[in-house]
Design brief:
Layout (H helix, E strand, L loop, with lengths): L3 E6 L5 H11 L6 E3 L2 E6 L1 H10 L7 E8 L3 H9 L12 E8 L7 H20 L4 E2 L6 E7 L3 E7 L21 H10 L11 E4 L6 H11 L20 H16 L8 E5 L2 H14 L5 E5 L16 E5 L11 H9 L17 H12 L7 E7 L4 H5 L5 E7 L2 E10 L14
This protein binds S-adenosylmethionine.
Length: about 425
């Protein structure tokens, strides 16, 4: 069967995890992790499987042209070299996006225009008609990447970015992207079984992204099963055989859904957020797999787990300008005289929120025989010092443009390697 060169872009730092995920989804393929994504050769069936199954990739791109260029005329010729009648008819729509790194051209818009002209001119010559542009929901989204000397043209088989799983309607103030929540779980090796991660608790759940991603993993729900993809409009995927193959994949995905083997908890001090999270979980098909609660993360008792089941705390806590800490710590900060807040944005987590959180964990989460492990995503490289906890691992991850670390803390009673003496750095 014919294979196509594929590229799956992902957030910086996630490349290795994505290569492992692709290998798990399609064991016969050879994904190569590169800067910014994973490259591989795959069939149209693999493109469907990847769109349906990847939690970490931003898109599934099919490379259709690659070559050197000096000006827009070279780009026009490059695009003319593709047989677009294999991809669309004049009744389909298209859109061209560009990305560039050290590109010498003056206008990326003009570069995109020349690609559009090439596609339209070729189809008009072949059929007498030309397709239209649709900037919101094109059937054929194309991505042109330009570096200093080379241009690469991709068909985007996904359409809307893959972090849009199709279940989020209620977002809250600073929701994590679904792909980042999935990357946190993957970096933690959390697989939704009693031996790989155990129970999961997000005590600052916001709109529920971490818990919902986790619950879908634990229930075997394919991340792409609740949405549509651009490839469903594109000709290589439109034959009766390919449509049957897609339906078969959807049915198989449905029959793979199971009951979660581990308990998953999500709570937030804001009842409004808990309500958002619950509604999102309902749309994601995992409402029954998650126990939702309101409550202050500084006071909530640890969930009661079976003695042999380890627990994973995972959160992106309130931090910085977009989200303030609420509850006990927030009230204390608001009551404090302005001098106490010097150097801190009013809407930031109050200075002692993280120290209090760590003290609470030491009291409430260290008694469990199988242990709890906490994972905290933060842009603050000094967070372990602030929490007076010694991290056992720090994984670089990017939250959009913000460089973060996923800190791992082992919450084991009396463990010297996890608990730092107060005041030590
Ligand atoms: C950065 S947001 C989390 C976003 C979430 N991961 C999502 O994807 O929507 C931080 C959350 O912490 C909550 N929060 C602030 N202070 C808290 C506290 N003391 N206890 C529990 N939750 C708190 C806020 O209500 C907010 O929803």
């Amino acid at each position: 069967m014919q294979t196509l060169p594929l590229f799956l872009p992902c957030a910086a730092g996630v490349e290795g995890l994505l290569a492992e995920e692709v290998q798990r989804l399609l064991p016969e393929l050879c994904p190569r992790s590169q800067r910014g994504g994973v490259a591989l050769q795959g069939t149209v069936g693999d493109v469907m499987a990847l769109n349906l199954g990847t939690r970490l990739a931003q898109r599934v791109l099919i490379q259709v042209a690659h070559g050197p260029y000096r000006d827009e005329a070279d780009l026009y010729r490059l695009a003319l070299g593709v047989d677009w009648t294999d991809w669309i008819t004049p009744r389909h729509t298209l859109r061209i996006d560009t990305t560039a790194h050290r590109c010498p051209l003056k206008s990326l818009n003009f570069a995109a225009l020349r690609i559009k002209d090439a596609v339209c001119d070729q189809l008009r010559q072949a059929t007498g008609e030309r397709p239209n542009v649709d900037t919101s929901r094109p059937d054929l989204p194309l991505l042109l990447h330009l570096d200093e000397q080379h241009a690469t043209l991709y068909v985007d088989s996904s359409g809307e970015a893959l972090f849009k799983r199709g279940w989020r309607e209620d977002a809250g103030d600073a929701p994590l992207k679904e792909t980042l929540a999935a990357a946190m779980l993957a970096a933690a090796g959390w697989r939704g079984t009693a031996t790989e991660g155990g129970a999961l608790h997000d005590p600052c759940c916001g709109s529920g992204t971490i818990a919902i991603e986790a619950a879908q993993i634990a229930c075997g729900i394919a991340p792409g099963s609740k949405r549509r993809f651009a490839f469903q409009q594109q000709l290589p995927f439109a034959s009766a055989e390919q449509r049957i193959d897609w339906q078969r994949r959807i049915s198989l995905a449905q029959s793979a859904i199971r009951k979660s083997a581990v308990p998953i908890y999500a709570s937030d001090v804001s009842f409004r957020m808990v309500d958002f999270a619950r509604r999102n979980a309902q749309r994601a098909g995992v409402e029954d797999a998650i126990t939702f609660n309101g409550g202050d993360a500084l006071e909530r008792p640890a969930p009661d787990l079976p003695a042999a089941m380890p627990g994973t705390l995972m959160l992106n806590p309130p931090y910085g300008e977009r989200i303030e800490a609420l509850g006990k710590a927030g009230a204390a900060a608001r009551a404090a005289p302005p001098a106490a807040a010097q150097g801190n944005d009013n809407r930031s987590a109050p200075p002692d929120f993280f120290a209090r959180l760590a003290s609470h964990w030491k009291r409430a989460y260290t008694m469990h025989p199988a242990g709890w492990t906490a994972y905290v995503l933060s842009p603050d490289m000094k967070l372990p010092g602030t929490m007076r906890l010694k991290e056992s691992r720090r994984v670089p991850l990017w939250n959009g443009p913000i460089e973060c670390r996923l800190f791992r803390f082992e919450l084991v009673a009396g463990s010297a390697r996890s608990m730092r003496a107060p005041g030590s750095e």
